Amino acid sequence: MKFYPLQFEPILKERIWGGEKLKTVLNKPITSKITGESWELSTVEGDVSVVANGEWKGKSLTTLINECPSEILGTAVHARFGKQFPLLFKYLDAREDLSIQVHPNDELAKKRHNSFGKTEMWYIMQADDDARIIVGFKEKSNANDYLEYLKNKTLLSILDDVQVQSGDVFFLETGTVHAIGAGLVVAEIQQTSDITYRLYDFDREDAQGNTRELHVDLALDAINYNKVETKKEYTKNANESNRVVDCPYFTTNFIPLDGEITVSKSGKTFTVYMCVEGTFEMEYGNSKLEYKKGDTVLIPAAMNAFILNGKASILEIYIS
């Protein structure tokens, strides 16, 4: 079987806080003015990605993994996770603030939801002037204080508010209270999980006058009440894989591509490329494929040699 770079049909999600930048900035085929997310690569139940290109067009990612687990996932990833695809890749457009939320760790998520936890990272692709995010507490807190501030609708006063710009990266371990602020387009890499505990949603109502469900009690023992450092500083050496995040769940590098680089892989893990700026080509065997800003491509582990060529900013993600 000949393996090749895989792209998938975007799974588009309307959100009360969404907008139209996934179309205007990333050229996604949205039809709604409140599209908040494009799930690029997913095996979440009910939202499984389908191949958009090549011989396997129309096949689901889960089908491919079941048929060729080591060749798609990699020998090490297959040994660790079986036939589960352990990561979820998204682009987000926040026209308004997202809710203030938290994700449980692996232990709590397994116990309550039979799911992975949700460690994640954000790469800021586009930021309006004065755009910001919320990440963690300003100072060490506790459950009683948190509940008191939440009850009085003053929770924002004890949470850390950080102004951001394009190219910033934030790494959020499970338990970190957070919210993406208005005016941001974000590339998100996370564990395969859709478990979110919503703490506060600014008392927003949808078109029918309904507020969204909160999960205050569930969140109490999921929250990390300590002050956390989430921003990641990283180098940007041209035509190199610059390490940004290295955690047990994924490794992310930043590649400022300006010309050509040859890539060699071991077969132990799949690799995903997210093009966050510019355009590039991938050459493998006698074939050549082109990618642009907003594209996401899965390189099966069985593809161990190829060339990247162009002028682009690329996120390179795999499992160490």
From TrEMBL:
CDD domains reported in the protein's UniProt record: cupin_PMI_type_I_N_bac (cd07010)
Matches recorded under Pfam families: MPI_cupin_dom (PF21621), PMI_typeI_cat (PF20511)
Residue span, Mannose-6-phosphate isomerase cupin domain: 245-318
SUPFAM superfamilies noted in UniProt: RmlC-like cupins
Zinc in keyword set: yes
Gene Ontology molecular function terms on file: isomerase activity
InterPro entries: Carb_Metab_Reg_Kinase/Isom (IPR051804), Man6P_isomerase_Firm_short (IPR014628), MPI_cupin_dom (IPR049071), PMI_typeI_cat (IPR046457), RmlC-like_jellyroll (IPR014710), RmlC_Cupin_sf (IPR011051)
Domain of life: Bacteria
Residues of the Phosphomannose isomerase type I catalytic domain: 8-115
Alphabetized UniProt keyword annotations: Isomerase, Metal-binding, Zinc
The keyword Isomerase is annotated on this UniProt entry: yes
Name of the protein described by the UniProt record: Phosphohexomutase
